[in-house]
Design goal:
heterodimer, A: two-stranded parallel ribbon, 3 helices, B: 387 residues, alpha/beta, FAD/NAD(P)-binding domain, 3 domains, 7-stranded mixed β-sheet, 4-stranded parallel β-sheet, 9 helices, 17 strands, 27% helix, oxidoreductase (chain B)
Chain lengths: 72, 387
């Protein structure tokens, strides 16, 4: 979040379980982070399961990145 | 008496957030110091059995929002020493501040077994967060060490993932009859009383423990151990304040103590909330007694400082959109997830390479030097923060 405050585009990868925690932290730090939310958990996944997480989040990341670059 | 704050709260877990909210709702200027993130132990609980608040992170989020709405300022810095007095002085990572009243709600330290090689295995089989790390042990055997409500709750949570959960109780259990019944009803949980862990097994990754009971010593093959023993209170944090045998503080000398950090505190969410409320009210009463009937209200209270109102643009960065990095919290699979996502972006934007940085652990704040380097060198950083 500090990176965004310094002008860096910094999407935060967070699982659904930790989303409320990250949102509360963001509120406390007065920032509105770019959030890339993936299903919980990430730890303990097999390679195939992890590839599924990546596949599921990639499109949103690319959209987020293109949008940020387009606005600069 | 002129002070930086009316009330300074050390620790933004359940007790600290409630105490801060109560004091702020009475118009006091309140700061709550937290080393890493608000919520305390709540963030580790995915299910709350004694409370209607949903999951731990959900309740923590609600408590944080309520405190902020009341006007509490949450400061991300560690308080290293409190000097009681009128005013009290607090040494923090951001410098020294003064406050008319102090509430210490710093909770307890993480559990430890006190065995050789233990620290090297933290994150490699040793954990104190079933909600975070439980999925790592899906279908495998784990042990939980302790005798209190927290131990029982973590064991029950782990039973949702692990093939077998052995609860090693040093003496006799202190958990409630209700939790005892839930443990007994779970076929994956085995409770062993009078059990001490005497050694850890494993090279680089935990593979088992040695357990001593009245019947002698035996090897227990487990992939994970969750210790909830030897959790210490913040003994020594407050100059001159007494502590019990477990390092939990005895309130006195004008310093209020709330939640698990207080000697004699009951380990429950309801008790932490009640304790926080009582401490907040006591802080209000103490300041009212000092100030008399006249109170001058700071008209800027609740208005964010200018520096907090929005983003701070980096001034010395020459980074372009070709400069993209990954920043991992080093939790299991977090780096792999970031690399997979980074590769997609690398292909999409035809980037020659990606920068990379890693925190040593998810449970410590990012190194300021790393943040400086990333913000100066890169235009975009993909960050793993909560998984």
């Amino acid at each position: 979040m500090e990176l965004e405050r310094r002008g860096v585009v910094a999407p935060l990868v967070v699982t659904e379980t930790f989303l409320p925690l990250v949102q509360a932290q963001a509120q406390a730090r007065r920032v509105q982070p770019r959030l890339l939310v993936v299903p919980h958990p990430v730890g303990g996944l097999t390679g195939t399961e992890l590839a599924g997480r990546i596949e599921g989040a990639a499109a949103e990341l690319l959209r987020m990145a293109d949008e940020a670059r387009g606005q600069s | 008496m002129s002070t930086d704050w009316d009330v300074a709260v050390v620790g933004a877990g359940t007790a600290g957030l409630v105490a801060a909210q109560v004091a702020a709702e009475r118009g006091l200027r309140v700061v709550a110091y937290e080393r890493l993130s608000p919520g305390g132990q709540l963030v580790n609980l995915t299910t709350l059995h004694d409370h209607p608040g949903g999951t731990g992170p959900e309740l923590m989020s609600a408590l944080t929002a309520a405190a902020e709405e009341a006007g509490v300022r949450i400061a991300y810095a560690e308080v290293t020493r409190v000097h009681p007095g009128g005013p009290a002085r607090l040494e923090t990572g951001d410098g020294e501040v003064t406050a008319g009243a102090v509430v210490v709600a710093a909770g307890l330290s993480a559990g430890r077994l006190g065995l050789p090689g233990e620290e090297a295995l933290v994150g490699r089989g040793i954990s104190t967060c079933a909600g975070c790390d439980g999925p790592l042990f899906r279908g495998r055997a784990v042990a939980v060490v302790g005798d209190d409500e927290w131990t029982a709750e973590e064991a029950l949570e782990l039973a949702g993932f692990a093939a077998a959960v052995t609860v090693l109780v040093p003496g006799e259990p202190r958990w409630s009859a209700a939790r005892a019944a839930r443990l007994a009803a779970d076929g994956r949980v085995d409770v062993v009383t009078g059990a001490a862990v005497t050694a850890l097994r494993g090279e680089g990754v935990l593979s088992g423990v040695v357990v001593r009971t009245a019947d002698g010593e035996r090897e227990l093959a487990v992939a994970g151990v969750f210790p909830f023993v030897d959790r210490r209170g913040p003994e020594g944090l407050v100059a001159g304040l007494a502590a019990d045998a477990e390092g939990r503080l005895v309130p006195g000398d004008g310093v209020l103590v709330a939640g698990d950090a207080r000697a004699g505190a009951e380990q429950s969410l309801a008790a932490a909330e009640a304790d926080g409320r009582a401490a907040g009210e006591a802080a209000v009463a103490a300041l009212a007694a000092t100030a008399g009937s006249l109170r001058i209200v700071d008209p800027t209270h609740g208005v964010l400082p200018e520096g907090d109102a929005g983003p701070v643009e980096a001034t010395d960065s020459t980074a372009t959109w070709a400069d993209v990095a990954l920043f991992t919290n080093s939790k299991p699979n977090a780096t792999e997830l970031l690399r997979g996502l980074g590769e997609r972006l690398q292909a999409h934007w035809e980037l020659p390479e990606l920068g990379f940085a890693a925190k040593e652990s998810a449970s410590v704040a990012a190194d300021p030097d790393q943040i400086d380097w990333l913000s100066q060198r890169f235009k975009m950083v993909l960050v793993a923060v909560g998984d």
